[in-house]
Structure formats: structure tokens, C-alpha cells
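User: I'll paste a sequence; please echo it back and then give the predicted structure.

Assistant: Echoing your sequence first, then the prediction.
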Amino acid sequence: MIEYISILGSTGSIGTQTLEVAESLGIKIVGLAALKNVSLMEEQARRFKPEYVALHDEEKAKELKLRLADTSVKVDGGLEGVCRVAALEKSRRVVAGIVGIDGLLPTVSAIEAGKDICLANKETLVTAGDMIIPWAKQRNISILPVDSEHSAIFQSMESGKPKEVKRIILTASGGAFLGKKKSELENVTVSQALAHPNWDMGSKITVDSATLMNKGFEVIEAMFLFGTNPENIQTMIHPQSIIHSAVEFTDGSVIAQMGLPDMRLPIQYALTWPDRLVGPYRGMNFFDLPPLTFQKPDYETFGCLKLAYQACTDQKNMRIVLNSANDMAVEAFIKG
């Protein structure tokens, strides 16, 4: 098992859960980076005692430096500071949990420094997967998925060889608006969009889940991570979020990964791979599960998913435009 990690996006949902998992496993934190949450970063720095922390917001970084003046923690600021955390020599793996396109350059810095990547940032592969994946392979760097669906595919893939894979089955809960028609979505509120039925996630990804744009990004991500074509990736609505995804092999066998909807499980697997360690999480009692149901996506109502499939086969520019347009749309929606 690895002993040292750095976390990019430590104050967000993935970051805070990663710290919880790392603490339970005895993994030491070398570096932490985030956008601007001074208070939480100070709390994390004092509790986990990293060698180095950084805030992207340089003014907030100055404030953090004053707050941590009585400690030995080094404080940095700006994008360059975040990239320096990503490349810290002592860490073996870097958890890439920064939301949005801001996570791309720090992830690049980590790869350049030879770190294995626990990838939670979808935008890195959505916008630059055609460069990131070949580059990581060339440098013998592992890209370990943190998303529950891609972690499930990654684990299921271990049951066969890449050439034996017939298709990937990517599951989706359906989000907060499952079953609604387009006319019913014209006046939805932010609080409605953020009411995800199964998962505890950050605001941006929860809104993306409600529109199925998140699932669309996951299709693009899976295309690059697993070296397959979009026509070999089937999206399936599974409201209970128990089957996290599956792989069908050429002999007709389907291998699925199941578990309760808890992000700490795929986080732990990314941190401990290729090993499996005992974790503090409750197991799954099959007798307590609700009936498991499956349905086809409504591409007419949730057009974002259809756009993402189209972006898989179009020029790279469409993926970049799709990502940027979605970022702006979600930000405007959340701000009201």
C-alpha cells in the first residue's frame, strides 16, 4: 500500500472523503490544494499536518499563510502553487479532485512529476483525454478512476483481457429529475436539482447528474480510459445505484461491480490498488436491498447525454466547447 499522497481539491466533496479514507488506512498526507476555502484548509492543515498546502486564490493564500504562521506547514498560492502541490516529490499518488477545467493543469503537473493519478476530475479526460492517456502510458503512470462507475468498469475489466471486451454498460441513477418530461423541467429550482436520491456529492456534479450531462461526460471519459468506441458503451438507467457499472465479454458473460452508494469505496480502491484492504464501511445485505430496476435513457428530454455521444465522434473542439458551455450554464443556474 502507498504511504504518502497529495490531494487536489481537498476542501470539496471528494477531497474531504479522501481525507477520511486516508486517515482510516494510515496513509499520510504530503500536500493539500483547493480553491479558496481558508477556514477548512486551515482545519485540514492542522489536523493532517501536510508539508505543503496551496490555495488557487492568491489573496486567500496570503490569509491562510498568516493563520498557519505558528505551524511548519508551507503555504503557496495561485495556479502555480497548486501545480507545485501536485508535483511534490514525496507523494506516490495524487488525488485529482478539483472541479472543472481548473483541474487539468495540476493533473498534467502530477503526471509530469511521475505520480500515479487517482482521477475524480472528469474534465481532464473530456477535454484532453486523447493526449493525457497516451502520455500517461508512455510514462508508465497508472490512471486510477475514482468515479464509482469507472471504478466498477476498471474492476470488472480485470476478469478478462481488453480484446475480450464486447461492451461497457455504464449505469446512471437518473438524477433528481428521473421520469420527468421536458415540459416539467422548465421551471425547476436549484434545490430540486441538488436533491440527488442516492449520492452525496458537490453542487456542480449533482446538477450535472440531474441533466445527465455528468453521464455524458462519463461516456467520453470511459472511451479514453478503456480505449473503446462510444458505440460499445451502453448507458442504462438504474435508479437504485447498487450496480455501479458492468462489462460484457465476448463469451456472453457480464461482470458487474455492486455496492452501496458510498463514494468512499471507490476512493479507497483507487488509493490501495492493486490491493484490497479492510475498510470501516458497512457491507451490503442483499436481503435489505430494494428491487433492482433498469430502463433506457430518455434522450429527448435529457439531450445533454445525446450531445456527449455526438462529441465522442466529432472533432476534439466539440468536447471542449461542450464542457465550457456546460460549466457556464451550471454556474448561471446555481447563481440564479
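The first strand starts at residue 4 and ends at 8. The chain has two domains: 4-146, 150-335.
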